[in-house]
Structure prediction request, 1163 residues.
Amino acid sequence: MSSPIVTRRGAQQAKIQTRAMVKSKSASASSSSTATAAATNATSGPNANGSASSCGPRKTSPALQEAKRRARNMLKSQSNGQGSQLEPIIDIFQNAVNAKNMHRGATALIYDESMSEHCCLWDVTHQERPERFTRTMERCRELNLVDRCLQLKSRLATKDEILKLHSLEHYERLEQTSGVRNEEAMEELSSHYDAIYIHPSTFRLSLLASGSTIELIDQLLLGKAQNGMAIIRPPGHHAMKSEFNGYCYFNNVALAAQHALEAHRLQRILIIDYDVHHGQGTQRFFYNDSRVLYFSIHRYEHGSFWPNLQESDYHAIGSGPGTGYNFNVPLNAKGMGNGDYLAIFQQLLLPVAMEYQPELIIVSAGYDAALGCPEGEMEVTPACYPHLLNPLLHLANCRVAVVLEGGYCVESLSEGAALTLRALLGDPCPPLVERLELPSMELREAVLNCIYVHRPYWRCLQLQQTYTAAELESESATTAQLHRVKRIWLGGPPPEPDQRYPTRGTSAQLPEDVVARNAARLSVLRAETQLSVPAIRVCYAYDAQMLQHFNLHDATHPEQPMRIRQIHQMHDDYQLLGRMHQLPARAATTDEVCLAHTRAHVNSVRRLLGRSVEELQQMGSGYNSVYLHPRTFECATLASGSVLQAVDSVLRGQSRSGICNVRPPGHHAEPDQPHGFCIFNNIAIAAQYAIREFGLERILIVDWDVHHGNGTQHIFESNPKVLYMSIHRYEHGAFFPKGPAGNYDMVGKNAGRGFNVNIPWNKKGMGDLEYALAFQQLILPIAYEFNPQLVLVSAGFDAAIGDPLGGCKVTPEGYGLFTHWLSALAGGRIIVCLEGGYNVNSISYAMTMCTKTLLGDPVPTPQFLPAAQRSATVAFQSCVETLQLCVEQQHQYWKSLVFGCKLPQCVLGENNNEDFLAATMSQLSISNDNALGAVGGDGSQQPDPGQDRPSGSKPKVKVKTLTEFMAEHKEALEQQEMFAIYPLKSCPHLSQLRPEQAPKSINTSGACGDCGSTVENWMCLICQSIGCGRYINEHMEQHCRRAQHPLVLSFSDLSVWCYECNNYIDHPLLYVYQNLAHVDKFKEPMPWTHSCQQRTDGCYPIHLDAVDSNRQNNNNSNNHDHGGSGCSSNANTNNDDDDAGSGSGSGSGSDGVSYYIQLERNN
Prediction:
């Protein structure tokens, strides 16, 4: 039996074979003996199970020849050790299978008590003081966090480790201060550096901080711990290669990242820096390195906030190979709080992190943006930090390291750091006490500016539409619709080379009333933040009696008992049942069911018992997609009652969360009738029960079943206490349950307007990437603004890969990730209830991944990298359109959705960092143009941000060469999603061309002269006949063989093919024909891309070098100067300098070799 798993390689081979078979059918039948021999060969060959072609004495398909040639070359390169091994065909559920033995690991903690020695001897009021460390450790011990951690032994960094990034002079300069107690000398030395003091212990403790950070990274990468935190000082992210800066001496995080790159061979490290000051030191170390993505969120105020660098603005996106891998989110106002920071993570950081697929995440955790810090003057509450960290914890194989940086209000610092460690240990995120403030206008500007400059490099940042300069000038345009990119510089010139800095009285001070107000607010927040959690992580609802409901007339019906039995069995195989609290089953009472349904509906189902099989079939046929059984009422009430048991356990504080493995499903069931396999609406009953029995005011229902939950929507469409969010396949109303109810514009009725959010997919094939974007752009922002007290998930798994009804591609690990994201809400009170899903393997793995997530186990991260390297699929493009419509519809009800406006069209130029606004200069708003380094100002004296001194200049980024392009797409080339073709620079058949007799125009829409086809047509360059290609009816090839006219021009990509040489040709003689086609197709001349000078007569000599001669299969290599009619003998014949240039798919490498790049999509 053939495998049901379809791989990309298998699909490609099948496509080639199918084309060959189609062609062979059109050929004349061969003789009986030939057919018999062909059949015998096919049976004994490697494709014995396939259909044998019985074509006569006909040449092999060129497509099949090409496939065989590529396969031979691949095998040859592998045998020579030059290529990667073929990847084995693996189960589509392999990641879920691998997760079986993945259990929660330890959380590592590293610190050293001696770090409290570091202090400023001449200024006792200095804010970088020992209490930052001691109070943080005290709070961690108060919450019993330290004893729960794997405590690592601190160590000193070696000299070699420091010199990986810092200069020898820098190292020795600090080493010379070790043990020196001359305060006057140390203060004088400190005055040469910005915001620095030096203590006799500074050198040793700086080594200890760096060494401890490296040790933490080592332990994570060696698998000794799952995640960890380094509570260290002095901090490090401002330290540069040869300069102490901002309380920092050695750059702890940068050194650890470099160590991971070199010692552990990592290729993708994500550094997140949410210290309120920009970590310019870390940025400079990796500004040119794509292996490290640096993401900084910092107060900037247009350069007027320390460190007062232009390179801290959003336009600094990296340089060279690192272009696009440096993110700065500059905050241009004080007072930003939880809503602002959550928006940055949801709209920008999380999508980019998912696409980047890091192997390690390091957080430079400064808490000086926390409420009460005099430095940052921001208002992020301590309880918000776990919410920022939570969505990252299941990325990078859960390898997340948090390293302490700044934070100068010891109350908010100690609380924020302790709650961060608590989140690393797997405790639920505490509910946010205060109402979430909406993103500010300044934050909106910063995020949109950042998206604008980075969208050319990131597929996930394409959700905003674009506008042109003409649209901006139109009277109908409004400020809210069109975002205007601004750069304002309010900072001063860079420091003088010998500038001295103050060493006393440098700490920021707040007015006494502000300090008192912040202290009181922090006290209330600490008292009201709920940190106690139940010991039981997950309760589990299941009863075998629910197996008794089945279809009496169709044993193959997709909604069958095996669904929940297989899920239960897999939970047992993964040894999860013993780790959960097993809930006793009970049937929901009639009153409970009537919370969501009419009594008439309940009674009609109750009366099924005792009915004959024929009566049941007749009654079921009266509903939409429903079958009935004598035990239906018993099973349906048992399913609803089991969910109520989970609600009781969670809301009474007995369990943190719940898993309900129940059937029949419920979300289609209407108030007055069953619908779509559903009898009673389990989730709706549970929500109403929680409102009635526990007095809840805000319940979130997330329905990710591939079918719209029409019943749930109708039950709550006027109820503002229940926010219903459904993400489903819609197909413009043609997908079940059909009709307009599932469209994005259905927002609820009356008091419930805005509390119904539909995300309708209009194409099949949506996968982890599309669902993740829906969560990041809509579900999570709205959910946080709603602030639910309970989360109920209608967990249908029919959008899972392999489902026979859904047609989508969400992986089991994808469902696990979405569950993890939702578990940050409502203090972790989340109940996942089975709905649909009809591939028993898919639903079993998917529900198991959800359970493992709630139990705190790591789950493999969904792999987005290969998809991100390909062109956008039809599904992705449709996803973007849907999300744009949903945001536009919902933003009037949810103020967190402020990022849906249009951005200026971005044009990639030769110098993106310098000219990224040049295409829309009329939209710019620039202040202080004469400031040094500002846009339009004199930045010639400013060094590169990747260099050592402060700078506001923007590094120049050249257009990628083809060599860089090929290196960037190496994986796609190896996986045969893309391949490179080398065209010949010359061809002996070019002598048949007469450029002076070329037609005056070429109609690229012309039809085949034989069959009338307009698909994949070619034109003969000798006689200008038009014929269809080899994958249609092969009329062009037949013409060329018959007339001996070998050269043809493609109307698709303007490439030229020679049938005799069996290769693409690139030569200046072809330009006249290609240009005529280009003018017809694109209404403009084709650029001249050859290195020789363009001639007015279009005639050039034909020259074959030795390399090309070898490729000609012994064609006449003496025809060096077979120019066309009228070709001059003194023309430039040095064809080695000619670049490729024919067609839109051509390019040139630095070695002069030409390429055609062909990208195959298998959508």
Observations:
- The chain has three domains: 108-466+501-528, 536-891, 988-1082.
